[in-house]
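Example 4.3 (complexes with small molecules)
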Amino acid sequence: MEKIVIDGGARLSGKVEISGMKNAAVAVIFACITVADVCIIDNLPQISDVRQSLEMLSSIGAKIRAVGRNSVEIDTRKVKNKVVPAELARKMRASYYLAGACLARFGSAKVGLPGGCDFGSRPIDQHVKAFTAMGATVNVGGGFMDAVTENGVKSAGIFFDCVTVGATINTIIASVLCDGVTVIENAAREPHIVDLANFLNYCGANITGAGTDVIKIKGVEKLHGCTYSIIPDMIEAGTFMVAAAATGGRLYIDNVIPKHLEAITAKLCEMGAEIEEYDDAMLVTRRGELLPANVKTLPYPGFPTDMNPQIATLMCLAKGTSHISETIWDGRFRYVDELRRMGAMIKVDGKLAVVEGGAQLTGSCVRAVDLRAGAAMVIAGLACEGRTEIEDVHYIERGYDNIVSKLRSVGAKIKKINTPDDADMKTG
Ligand code: EPU
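Answer. The structure with EPU bound is encoded below.
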């Protein structure tokens, strides 16, 4: 079994480079199906969700060729509208973009239902609503989503019942080649939605309004290939910012878009970190005591739910009472039991967590119960006294590119081991 082992207490110091954004990369990779040409995608993070997206594309006939450490050539000219096996689709959330992409290109799609981190219920009713409005007959059952149109998708007006990243992305992808103008209202505004729209526009699409809550997609007859670079990952950047604050360190975090980090930056400053912003970098330093704070997770530009576990860990280190109100995922607080093993005092009541901070955390054996929960365990391990062993590392590897070596390069005593007995660490 693979584990991450951390000897806590080292202050992080130095420079770390942020990789491309997971949630933009997976959207762009599946959107390549609609392009039916050759695209080169740069700045792809080396994470298992990207590898699995490429594997899924290749299973339906795309030719994938690595053209550099973080660049891949994707040729979707010979893609066939094959059924994507449920076992493959279940490995990740973004596999449902395959449905939008095949609907756009072929007028029908049959895709295994998506998996992804377990936050309780993760409905897809808004995806079904959008595809239905666009003229598809959609059946969900037997582990598959089956969507069929008579003559291809048609443009539609869609008002989402809730702000959803996934359904906004899927609707953009599905409508990019249709006749007429599709209008999405109450659209999500996350930076990865803008990145997807920019990519498709580079390929000849006509999408306006991405980044606002009204997005218009004027269908075009066909798209063409392009070379495109994925934006930096704001959640990876936020995770390193919290790690710097948690360890009382000084970290220069390079290759970021500071605008995307505003909610995280504001909260960290409130909690006692000092942050200097540069054009595409941030310097995060923490010298004094950490202060308690209150956080409410919200769709962008609010404080991201994908930073909930990491900020909770920082709250554990701040003397006083902090609160986190989670508004996106019912099952987001599954990491709390793991933090409690390290001495954290957190009470959860439904979607509210109350953190009594200030107690010294101590190293323990914990699990990464999901991707961002795993990141929180890493931060807790870095900041606590003693040794922490984290199991279920595969969750962390879904979304963090080389997290162990990046952290080692800035002074963390961290390594990955392959068996529980191989704990004889020589950390640097
Ligand atoms: N929702 C519905 N119906 C739908 C779709 C969503 O009710 O058809 C609800 C959800 O239950 C949730 C809210 O809408 O309460 C938001 O869900 P959203 O669709 O925005 O989430 P997602 O697309 O499934 C993406 C990210 C998640 C991130 C959320 C929220 C990807 C591949 N995943 O999920 O990222 O937590 O947006 O920002 O883009 C992660 O990276 O660790 C991760 C889990």
